Amino acid sequence: MSEIYVCQAGSCKAQGSEAVLLEIEELTKGLVGCSVRASGCVGACSQAPNVIVAKRGASESLHTRLDTVEKSAEVVREATGHTPSLQDPVLLDRLAAARSMRIRQVARGEQKWNKAMAGMAQRIANTSDEDDRAELQFDLAELCVSAGQYEEALGHLAAVKSVAVYSPQVYLSVGKVLRLLHRFDELDELAEDVAWTFQEPRSARIREYIGNFLRECKQDAIQSAADPTHFRRIEGYARWKLCGIVPVSPHTAIYHFTSSDLKRGTPYARGRGRTMWHKTWHTTLLAEVGENNEGPLPWIERDYTPVSTWIDWEKGNVDILIKIYPNGTATSWLHKQPIGCHVWLSQPKKTMAVPSLTLNSSRIGNDKLAHQGVLLLVAGTGIVVASQVMHHMDPNTCFGTSTNRTPPLRCPTTVIYACRQDDVLMAGDLSKWCSSDIGHAKLQRCVLAISSTQDQASAELPFQATTSLGPTSELRQLASVPNLSIVETRVTSELIQHELALLHELGQCRIVISGPESFNCAMKNMLIQENGIVEDLITVLSG
Ligand SMILES: Cc1cc2nc3c(=O)[nH]c(=O)nc-3n(C[C@H](O)[C@H](O)[C@H](O)COP(=O)(O)OP(=O)(O)OC[C@H]3O[C@@H](n4cnc5c(N)ncnc54)[C@H](O)[C@@H]3O)c2cc1C
């Protein structure tokens, strides 16, 4: 008897794990003694998509980067002893198509256009069925429109139109793109084309509908061409100006951006009759690095969790704490950008539901998962999540109108923060949260688990020359805070146990892990295996 668990948590889903589940289900069809299940995070997010095989009498084995059908077949072989046949090209093609469709859907949902388009041109070239090819190419054209690549979209739509001559949808899409490109003459030509193509009396309603739509497109195009403030947009994104960079350690700085672009949206969506959904949130930065291996667009997409509040965002200000990695594609690009340059930031996206502090809102009403205390187990730049959690504990910064702000998070909260001695981030905030007496925005306790500084050539330290405060002076300041302790060890299960025991006196605890993948993975395993914590009470934020 064996069980195959296919991870369906965030990172794995973004890498097509729903399709992996479907693939493995398909490959195990008819085999007895093997069950296939969806599972929560298995703690190897950086190598997604992941699967665990559990065989009776044997230890579990983790299978990572299941990015081909062949690898899924290998999992099935290990679980059942039976090697599935991959001779059927139709089955193989169907499974590969399902997988790339799932990756595309998730990326599209996150408005990550480059990621959504990755590999599509090749799939189109390899698709022999004309209708399937046209469908894929239409999908690609729509993604190009979302990404502001209108000329490319027109090229794809022309190819689709040559196959789907009588598809009204294609004419409507071409009209939309011509409107965005302000091509008035071509809109007129398209209207003539429609009148000719749908000239049969039975097509009169279609002809009239598209004709009216194209006339509206032309009017809109004339108006927008006359608007001097008009610029080409990327769907879901707004333009922000880099206004300041304040180094906070040799590796990390707070990047301050401003924007008057009304498309920037808000973390706190509201309106008449709308329920107030509290959440922590992040934004996606488009790093315009040029040609890259993440997709066909000239940018890569990276998520960041602002440390400033939703109120600041609405006023057109945002502060983002960013660590610069010498080998990081996006951050080394950002490091070279001058003050005053413009970048694209997405509208705010939900990270965790509040007060449940879970990724999945459906758990909000689950009483068994209700908590009376919160432990934030963070490392490196993962500390930014603490800032957002604290905003929801403070009547001045939580969601709500100025006359009605009741913090949704009120339970005792402890932070265990693992960091390098030369990279203690948000020290001032930690000390403020520990000693604060405003409302509920107060940390019960904070433990800094400091590791020693790695020797690094100063050329590799992006902010070496500009940081004035040395790490020791920052630590000295923190050492005087009464409910904050500094330990010179890694985070151990004993340390966690001690802090959890204090919180557990009050009831069940939610634990949020936020840091680099290796940290997240180690902490999650430690909590489950050594501290006996139920997986459902742990939220892992992959960084
Ligand atoms: C929801 C969310 C919120 C995030 N918020 C922030 C934030 O507020 N501030 C912030 O600085 N980052 C944040 N990140 C991480 C960020 O999105 C990027 O991954 C990071 O800036 C590196 O991007 P890069 O392109 O420079 O590196 P990449 O080119 O993607 O990676 C290159 C190398 O850099 C190193 N590296 C990259 N990321 C990490 C990491 N997280 N930990 C350790 N080593 C790493 C590794 O050596 C890696 O091999 C967040 C991520 C997520 C998913």
Mind explaining what this structure looks like?
- This protein is α/β, with parallel strands linked by helices.
- The chain has three domains: 2-102, Glutaredoxin (3-Layer(aba) Sandwich), CATH 3.40.30; 111-226, Serine Threonine Protein Phosphatase 5, Tetratricopeptide repeat, CATH 1.25.40; 237-542, Translation factors (Elongation Factor Tu (Ef-tu), domain 3).
- Helix content is 38%, strand content 20%.
- The protein is built from 18 helices and 17 strands.
- The strands form three sheets. Strands 5, 6, 7, 8, 9, 10 and 11 form a seven-stranded antiparallel sheet that branches. A six-stranded parallel sheet has the order 15-14-13-12-16-17, with helices on both faces.
- Helix 9 (168-180) packs antiparallel against helix 10.
- The longest helix is centred in the middle third of the chain and has 23 residues, at 204-226.
- The mean pLDDT is 91.
- Bound molecules: flavin-adenine dinucleotide.
- Residues 282, 302-305, 320-323, 325, 327-331, 351, 380-381, 384, 516, 542-543 line the site of flavin-adenine dinucleotide.
- Residues 235-355 form the FAD-binding FR-type domain.
- GO terms for molecular function: oxidoreductase activity.
- Its cofactor is FAD.
